[in-house]
Amino acid sequence: MKITRRDGLKMLGATALASVPFKALADGHTTHMVEMLNKEPDGSERQVFNPPVIKIAEGDSVNFVSTDRGHNSASNADMLPEGAEEWKGGINDDIEVTFTVPGVYGYFCTPHQSAGMVGLVLVGDVTQEQIDAAKEVRQRGKARARYEDYFAMAEEMIG
Ligand SMILES: [Cu+2]
Q1: Strand ranges in the chain using DSSP code E only, listed in sequence order
Q2: What's the rounded Cα separation, in Å, for the pair 130 and 88?
Q3: Contacting residues for 39 by C-beta, under 8 A, at least 6 apart
Q4: Mean per-residue pLDDT for 60-87?
């Protein structure tokens, strides 16, 4: 897994990025965008990744974009496929993570994990068994309730 600081993108500003949810790369892989937000765009939930659940192809990347300040993206060590590498962005940093190992990835924002700022990346052909394994991981605070919704969304995506 490759982690790249995207300072160049950050300088473009969040507004410019917001209209580009993903981009196709020359090698056939896609970079998807997940925003880090203080408040979800069309709701009342606070401290969220948007979208919180994303399904991507093996070899694709996710660009975690610091649209609002005070957030980061860090992998949950207990919610990674075997052989996958962890990542941890700094607060306010945009980071791009490339996913080469298929499976279910859980991640969170370090300061807002128990406030429920968590998410899932589904890479490649994800099985119900892999989702069930991720469900077994103990969650704290509001992350528990949010993950119930997010696993339901994940199951719909693989169904
Ligand atoms: Cu946060």
Answers
A1: 3-5, 22-24, 30-39, 46-50, 53-56, 61-65, 74-75, 95-98, 103-108, 118-123
A2: 22
A3: 45, 46, 48, 68
A4: 97
Which residues place a Cβ less than 5 A from the ion ligand 1? 71, 109, 112, 117
- Using DSSP's 3-state secondary structure scheme, residue 106 falls into strand
Strands 95-98 and 3-5 turn out to be antiparallel
Going from the Cα of 27 to the center of ligand 1, the distance in angstroms, rounded, reads: 32
What pLDDT digit, counting tens, does each position of 20-69 carry? 456 777 778 999 999 999 999 888 899 999 999 999 999 999 999 999 99
The Å distance, Cα 109 to ligand 1 centre, comes to 5
CA 129 to ligand 1 centroid distance, Å: 29
- pTM across the whole model: 0.85
- CA-to-CA distance for 41 and 50, rounded, in angstroms? 8
Domains of the chain, first to last: 3-158 (2.60.40.420)
Question: Which amino acid would we find at residue 119?
Answer: G
Nearest to 139 by CA among 103, 111, 106, 101: 106
> How close is the Cα of 70 to the center of ligand 1, in Å?
6
Distance separating alpha carbons of residues 146 and 149, to the nearest angstrom = 5
The rounded Å distance from CA 123 to ligand 1 centre is: 23
